[in-house]
## 1
Amino acid sequence: MTNEVSTRSGIYRETFAGGLWRENPVFRLLLGMCPTLAVTAAVKPALTMGCSVIFVLLCSNIVVSLMRNFLKPHLRILMFALTIATFVTICDLFLKAFQPRMSETLGPYVPLIIVNCIIICRAEACASKNTVFVSIIDALGMGLGFTAALCVLAGVRELLATGEVYEIPVLALKETGGWFVPWAAMAMPVGAFITLGLLLAVVNAVTKRKA
Amino acid sequence: MTKIKHFIRESWLLIVSAFCFGLLIAVANAAWSPRIERNKVEKLNRLMSGLLPEAASFKLKAKVEIKSPKGQKTTSSVYAAVSDTNIPVGWVFNCEGPGFQDKIELVVAVDKGFGKFAGYAVLSSNETPGFGDKIKRSYYRNQFKGAPVEELGLVKTGDDKKVDSEIVAISGATVSSQAVVDIINNVVVQIKNKMQEKAVEK
């Protein structure tokens, strides 16, 4: 009995930790690249995007897991898309009502969560095969892993593009008598590609050394 | 009959969940849409009172159809700004036009006689960060404050502190700077004429 419990809690731990590092959606699986590249010019929008994805992932995983025994194989992708679209629309309305400025900054990228492959991947790979509880843990692990990756990327870009992190000044700008000259390129798409490439290299180097 | 049975057996979950999810979205929309509308109005009011700080309220006076140089038609809402003692202080209107990458929407304020600009603010734009999006910064916007309502021109070098009809472009963002000048040039004359016509009719 104890053995069974320990293996079960082991599965939960594995599932949660998997999303955070071993199967991190951005750094290991390279899924959901559209928001990763598009909204990481600053930490605040990246964090909002991450929270939106956690919400949608959590809700869609719960719903898909609840209906997993009724799913017809040839209609399952349709059901996933319907579920995800519903929660993304609710999330978009919520941001428009309570965070209007952030909603403007994120623009079309919130509605685009509908086609984010992390969510459909988790519905297919985890929620449609596992219990509700495992699906919730998986959603939290994957969602937090995605949010953390986005924030790291956004932190580096915001620091180099504006000298600030989370809109708090960190580096002394040359305009105000300091030494740092902001790199405008970091706020543009090119900065996203370069930073992501370098971060992927770092993550690969770390994993290789571990192995 | 068997066909219908087969159809229902295969798709009942889809039909049921489509109804449930539709209901969920409808409820969320009904609950939050007044707030979303209010946010839009608040944003416009905030921008307008930023441009004309002495105004206490803004009244929608007219909707004017604007023709772009390419022949497209858009509508601008013209608001009359009045102070708390009910004295007119100016006019504010929204307008839009093509920017470098996407549409630029502006709010433009002029004084009550359509003689001088009181400034502009950006309602929405999608210009290049670090370059074109400087049209939102005070360096560029301040050049419009007090500029005469006539054909504005864009120059690449000049004195940006001097208040005249020559606007000094943002370095590295000539297209975005030109876009703002073009939108304002196109719209302000049409609105001025329209409002004068209305005043004469009265």
## 2
Amino acid sequence: MGPAGLSFGAVAVATTASFILYGGTIYFVSIAMKWRLDLLLQGIGLGAMVRTWRRGFHGQVAVFGVVLLVVLSVEAVAIGPGAGPDGGVPFGGGGRWVEMSDTLTLDGYATEGAAPMNATPELGGVVPTSVNLSLQWVDNDAREPPAGPLDAAPRNRPDTLRLSVKGPGAVSGTVEAANDPSTRLGEVELGPFKAQQGRGLEGIVVTVECLEAGDVTGRFLTYVADGGNDYVLFFEYTYQEWIPGQNATD
Amino acid sequence: MADEHKGEEQWSGRLGFLLAAVGSAIGLGAVWRFPYLVYEHGGGAFLIPYLIALFVSGIPLMILELGVGKTLRTSAPIAFMRIHKRMGWVGWMTLMLGFVIIAYYTVVLAWSLVYMFASPGLDWGTDTQAFFDNEVVHLSPGPGQLGGIGLSVLAMVLVTWLIIYLIIVKGIKMVSKVVMLTVPAPYILMLILAFFSLRLEGADVGLEYYLRPNFEKLVDPEVWLAAFAQIFFALSLSTGVMIAYSSRLERKADVVNNSYIVSFLDVGFAFFAGIVVFATLGYMAAAQGVPMEDAVIGGPGLTYVAYPTAISLLPSANALFGVLFFLMLFTLGIDSAFATIEAVALGLKDAGFNYKRMSIISSAGGAFLAILFATGGGYHWLWIVDNFFNEIGIVTMGLLECYIVGHLYSTKKFVREVNETSELKIGRFWVVCIKYVTPLILVVMLIATLIKTAISGFQGYPAWAIFIGGLFPIVLIAFIAVRMSRRWGPRD
């Protein structure tokens, strides 16, 4: 992404169109108003440009082309490779944009009643173009209670975890669920979230929260007090990578 | 050649003429049509056919119209009659088509005023479509039902026509003064809106959609046809305005350079308007959490449904943004409106009528017609008339203009007359464009419209409505134009 979040392709179009339309307007108005732009340009050391321009149509095309090329080159260097296929091509060298995918796994422990835990993975500067989240846990405090005379059949209450994501545009969602008491497994999914064309999913924040850690209780006693739960977050994402070389393939 | 305006008023200076011509050329299409076309037809890549169309069709036609007016010193009907005695009807028809177009155009301007006054309270609420349909347009179920008329729209239509009358009644001198305000105003307002909208979150996404080039689209002939059609309509060609305005230029006026300035300012404004429109739509998409594709819209849906939604969603200064935007729309359109009505009055004056009386009659007649278009049923007629008057009527007039100047008048003589006072010269390229290239493109556009209408009609309207609103009035106007050209010839 460029400084204003625009790809080089879009900036190049804006620059070229502005050169033709507004540059053209200034040129024709200068003729009408008899402004001596040539003297102004000569005054700032651009006499060679003026002389070439005066050679007629071909000279004018040459001057126009060179000036535009210089400006576009400066923009290309300033804006950089962009965020994807629509983000333009890195300056110099052949190659192509290829969609890559990866999955990061994050372990953590969510404490019951605590503030949502930040579970945003570190992507090392990669800007994802799509994201899919999956949170899994096993009710790890659901140990078998000691056998006792009073509660013959103690019950394990499930743990409820919440997964939230917030990001640019439409990237926003919350999902929560309790684990299956019989298998002890819990799982929630969010996504996939896709970036709008020409833009990456920058600034995504993922949080995990334990809403309720169900204790193991009997008719009269609490056998195991559950304070939270371990979880595993799977962060699946795709991104665009520039593969240099003319014959680069997927 | 007799000077029609010897001793009469002419443009006091080049600036007044240029501003009036630019104001006439730039219209609402710059905001609601051009940006959408760019997005639809390959983003930034669309600018390639568009600029080619500008150079091979738009500017040559602009030179033709300004050249005809300046060299023949009279409005379209008499000018064409002087070129060929049987061709005066083309000029009359051009003016009449323009007159009807402005009648409904002022209704759209009236909507802008209604929205401007609704902006401080964001009166459109959350359902902007319902507000537009029920509170502004009072939409009837179809063209067969006239429906009601909103008092606010009626009042604004009358206000708009009063403004038009007051501007044109005193002729060119008054217009020269008014355009000093009304032409720079939309530019300044657009700059302010750009300052607002480019800082909004999601603006960059909107701009990416607007500008990102998709070069694959360039192999689609429809994209090229759209580019040529847009250039033709964007420059307000074949409405008689440019011929009427340039007929009041001084003899030494530079036609070619004026044509370039008017055309470049027109296209430049539309390009800039697209930046503001798409920045705002990008924000709206981000704020609503919808894909950009769902936010993009063209036509009145953009200005009177999507834009009010975006204005309501703004984090601050909603009312100010709304007032500025709709005021910008009004100032953008009012120049085109009074220019066309003035061209009608000048055309009648050049045929021997009293200018002041003609100003009153054309303004009153226009207001009456506009009221019909302002009804709930008139809304349907508005779009039918708009489609066929432009795509068949005006395109045919453009074609006939090329034929009259390119084949009935001596192009060699025309080129010499234009070049006499122009710093930039025209030559063989212009002749080829006017004699062959532009007519060929206009014929293709015409055939494409006829085939499209024959196959799929127009927006689901019944055939009788298309006939009554589109085809019959064009034929009727042609008939009246022929009668007028037989009756009213040049004064000398």
